[in-house]
Amino acid sequence: GAVVSQHPSRVICKSGTSVKIECRSLDFQATTMFWYRQFPKKSLMLMATSNEGSKATYEQGVEKDKFLINHASLTLSTLTVTSAHPEDSSFYICSVPGQGTYEQYFGPGTRLTVT
Amino acid sequence: EDQVTQSPEALRLQEGESSSLNCSYTVSGLRGLFWYRQDPGKGPEFLFTLYSAGEEKEKERLKATLTKKESFLHITAPKPEDSATYLCAVQDQGGSEKLVFGKGTKLTVNP
Predict the structure, then answer these.
(1) Which residues of B are less than 8 Å from A50 in CB distance?
(2) Which of A10, A44, A113, B68 places its Cα 20 to 30 Å from the Cα of A37?
């Protein structure tokens, strides 16, 4: 399976500021990466699909101007939460698809707390 | 709309006490059903993919099975280190690679 890293693992920011989260595929190139969000006692929910060389595809109800995604290279995707609010506090997890398979391999996650 | 329901929400077992977790799903066309393990504060760890009814996969004390409406994760003689939240997800045959997850079953195995 794929090895995926995320940075930072935890971040605390003040309301109104922006924060960037990085997702790296460490052992192979990924033209597609996925960003999920997990609230306590809730399902993981896909936010958007990050596409290398083109715009991200956002799920219904996810504000693309608030959650900026940049797939800068075949091994790096970034999620920037702009003008963060306390309700954006959550666990953000990225994933990459397996090679030739349908499963996805997840990073360790980033805990965002907005105060 | 694809839906995944997992039961029970939480399960406590004694070490060695076998049991099963359930994942019921609704999908227009199933491309795959996936089981993951998630430890607190960590990302999900991939366990199994099942593609068609009747398929079974095994890994150590875990065995996953699939029917047209549900999947079971059987845990045989569990150990305390099997304690985790087990997540089930489905992927539709439509073009999207989106995974739709259930809320998970939190398993606690007491020594």
Answers:
(1) none
(2) B68
Query: Å from A83 to nearest chain B CA?
Result: 25
Spatial distance between the Cα atoms of B15 and B33, rounded to a whole number of angstroms: 28
Q: Looking at chain B, which residue has its C-alpha nearest residue A97? A: B97
Contacts of A23 in chain B (CB under 8 A): none
Show the tokens assigned to B83: 């304690």
- Strand-pairing partners, residue A45, are A37
Phi (first) and psi of residue A109, to 5 degrees: 90, 160
Report mean pLDDT in 10-residue bins for chain A, 115 residues: 94 97 94 95 94 92 95 94 97 94 95 98
Tell whether the model's pLDDT for residue B9 goes beyond 80. yes
**Are B108 and B83 within 8 A, CB to CB?**
yes
Condensed to tens digits (0 to 9), the pLDDT of residues B34-92 reads 999 999 999 999 999 999 999 999 999 999 999 999 999 999 999 999 999 999 999 99
What tokens does B82 get?
């099997």
Nearest residue on chain A to B91, judged by CA atoms? A102
Q: Which of B43, B97, B98 sits opposite A107 (nearest CB)?
A: B43
CA distance, residue A14 to nearest chain B CA (Å): 22
Asked if A89 and A113 count as a contact pair (C-beta separation under 8 A), the reply is: yes
The number of helices, as runs of H, and strands, as runs of E, in chain A is 0, 11
